Amino acid sequence: MNWRSMALLLALAAPTWASETNPELELVSEHPVAGMETGNLSGMAWCGDGLWVVSDREDNLLYRLDAGDGDAVWQAQTEHFELPPVPDTGLPWGMRMRTQATGMVRGGQMDFEGLACDRLGNRYLVSEAHAAVLRVSPAGTSQWLNLPSALIRQARASGMLLKFNAMFEGIAVDPDAGRMWLAAERERRGLLVMHRNQSSWQCTGGCVLLVEGGNELPPPALGERPLPISFSALAYFNERLFTLEPNAHRVCRRNLASGKAERCWSYAATVLADSRRYDTPFGNAEALSLDEQGAWIGVDNNAQTRADGEKRPIVWRFAAPPGGWSAK
Question: Across residues 245-259, what is the average pLDDT?
Answer without folding.
Answer: 95
